[in-house]
Amino acid sequence: MKTPELIKRSKEVISDESSKHYKQKKSLKELQGKQKKKAKKLKDKIDNEKDKKAIKNMEDERKILFAQRKKIIKVLKSLK
Length: 80
What we know:
The protein has helices at 3-48, 52-79. With 80 residues, it is mostly helical. The mean pLDDT is 84.
């Protein structure tokens, strides 16, 4: 392979990787926002709920969302 061809292919690979990272970061940020909204809704439901069993279930779900958001943040930091 000649040099110009190698340069062209390397540019394609680099641009593919950067676009993949961009798409991945964008989708992760979108997921993070959705999870944040869901957690806020759950918090409001917990405040209005009287049944202790339902409150516990919602709190557990909220903890899971929080853990997932932490994982997303960690991945986003590693992509930067």
